[in-house]
Amino acid sequence: MICPICKKGETSVVDSRPTEDGTTIRRRRLCICGERFTTFERIQFRELMVVKKNGRKSPFDRDKLSKSIYIALKKRPIDTDTVEKFITNISRALEEIGQNEISSNAIGKMVMDGLKNLDPVAYVRFASVYRNFREEKDFVQFVDKIDVFKKR
Asked: Is residue 27 within 8 Å of 38, Cβ to Cβ?
């Protein structure tokens, strides 16, 4: 494993343990430069292809999904373990659909549905990109339609 700090490949595993749901192995690593970092090993059932809005296809990238969710949740009071479980649940749900191809719209809807329950602010943030809000009125119309903020 290459160290993300010094870019050398001389690291050792200091600690290894399964996550709560047992689908991922978390490994703490130590580089010869002295830095520690964490890696995750996950099961990949099949090569899932994402069909984009324009018809192009690309392999499903868990890291890309993770990045977009972390951006939506930036500076929100949600701990990393909860976010990782959320991402794992979405990835697993996509694999359990049993299809080799899934639309980006379906993935976006799954993320939005989950974020709606997890954090309303992250839900609106994600929706603003997913639904391509262009103006302030787009936000206002979207927030007026949802009842997430009315419950609080």
From this structure: yes
Which are the contacts of 102, defined by CB distance < 8 A and separation ≥ 6?
48, 49, 50, 51, 60, 94
Q: Chain centroid to CA 25: how far? A: 17
Total length of the chain: 152
* pLDDT grade for 149, boundaries at 50, 70 and 90: low
Q: Give the residues across from 12 on adjacent strands.
A: 30
User: CA 13 to CA 39: how far, in whole Å?
Assistant: 10
- Could you tell me which residues are beta bridge partners of residue 30? 12, 36
Query: Which two tokens mark 35?
Result: 């830095």
pTM of this prediction?
0.67
Structural domain boundaries in the chain: 8-43, 47-145
Distance from C-alpha of 61 to C-alpha of 77, rounded to nearest angstrom: 25
Q: How far is CA 79 from CA 17, 82, 114, in A?
A: 19, 6, 15
Using the 8-state DSSP alphabet, how is residue 76 labeled? S
